[in-house]
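pls design
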């Protein structure tokens, strides 16, 4: 699936294309997509294809096309503090984007059939937390993954506000999926070749909306040939944050507010000075005279002897102006992590500073 939008040169250009094509429609979803570089979830030798609107599969590792993930994120209608279950969580790319929106008091769980993919997802999650410049711009709901078949989830599991299934669901499993939802919750899944949004409006009431035609690999049915018994999948418990962790969240939030207030006062209530543009030099052009005579057209040029000299001077001036502007365009200032700078400047012991920064490398 995919190919609905043009490829991008980088992650931001891909997101621009998804916005222009109306796959990304809300600010929260856009921020999440921009914060996590899709290429980081590819194996190194396949990164050239990361910004194409195409699905990618290598062994058990799989990523859906960007246009599909965009539709899924929009359909889930995510809000801070909700609980989310990702069935077939794969690389963790989608779960990590969801975690940026859910915030520190959400719940973010994933079930993945293949243990090697779980390990891959954990590596990518660790890389994002330790190295991404985007991490400090959000308060993150870190995903937790368990191995197992999503059709064997324990019947006494908790229900979720939002559920996504990343494999094709047949009609006989529709009710099973619906029962994972709380009342008021939203389920998004490929149901009989259609990406479908189902909202639970009551204990036994549902609203269904078909979003678009898709082609997904079907859910893998449980295999009980070895033992003859079902392998029950126990989802992660809903963890209660420690007082120490809550204090870290509160302190980081306070520092971010201070940074925002300082930026507002520096920029005059957030209004930046208008951008100053260099006045472009007007290039002189030769005048053309067109004469109509007896249904025939005659064109002549009226030239000034000094035109050639002036034009060459103007071209040279334009070339110099372009060279002057190129360095700033090609070498933008590196982004500044103001939260990190502020924390490191605090009169605190180093271990406490690094705890506030989640022991991040940069």
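designed seq:
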């Amino acid at each position: 699936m995919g190919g609905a939008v043009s490829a991008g040169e980088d992650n931001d250009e891909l997101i621009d294309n998804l916005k222009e094509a109306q796959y990304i429609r809300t600010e929260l979803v856009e921020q999440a997509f921009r914060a996590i570089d899709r290429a980081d979830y590819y194996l190194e030798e396949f990164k050239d294809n990361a910004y194409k609107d195409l699905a990618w599969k290598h062994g058990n590792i799989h990523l859906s096309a960007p246009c599909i993930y965009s539709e899924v994120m929009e359909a889930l209608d995510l809000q801070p503090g909700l609980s989310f279950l990702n069935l077939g969580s794969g690389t963790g790319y989608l779960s990590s984007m969801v975690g940026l929106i859910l915030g520190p008091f959400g719940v973010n769980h994933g079930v993945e059939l293949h243990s090697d993919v779980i390990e891959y997802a954990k590596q990518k999650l660790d890389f994002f937390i330790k190295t991404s410049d985007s991490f400090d711009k959000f308060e993150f709901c870190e995903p937790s993954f368990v191995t197992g078949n999503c059709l064997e989830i324990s019947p006494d599991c908790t229900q979720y506000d939002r559920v996504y299934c990343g494999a094709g669901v047949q009609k006989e499993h529709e009710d099973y999926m619906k029962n994972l939802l709380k009342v008021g919750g939203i389920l998004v899944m490929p149901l009989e070749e259609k990406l479908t949004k189902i909202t639970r409006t009551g204990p036994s009431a549902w609203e269904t909306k078909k979003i678009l035609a898709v082609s997904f690999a079907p859910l893998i049915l449980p295999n009980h040939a070895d033992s003859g018994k079902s392998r029950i999948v126990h989802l992660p418990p809903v963890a209660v944050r420690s007082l120490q962790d809550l204090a870290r969240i509160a302190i980081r939030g306070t520092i971010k507010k201070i940074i925002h207030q300082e930026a507002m006062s520096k920029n005059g209530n957030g209004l930046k000075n208008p951008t100053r543009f260099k006045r472009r030099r007007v290039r002189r052009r030769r005048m053309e005279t067109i004469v109509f005579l007896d249904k025939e057209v005659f064109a002549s040029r009226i030239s000034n002897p000094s035109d050639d000299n002036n034009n060459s001077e103007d071209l040279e001036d334009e070339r110099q102006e372009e060279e002057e502007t190129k360095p700033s365009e090609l070498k933008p200032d590196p982004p500044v992590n103001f939260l990190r700078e502020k924390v490191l400047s605090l009169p605190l012991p180093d271990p406490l500073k690094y705890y506030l920064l989640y022991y991040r490398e940069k």
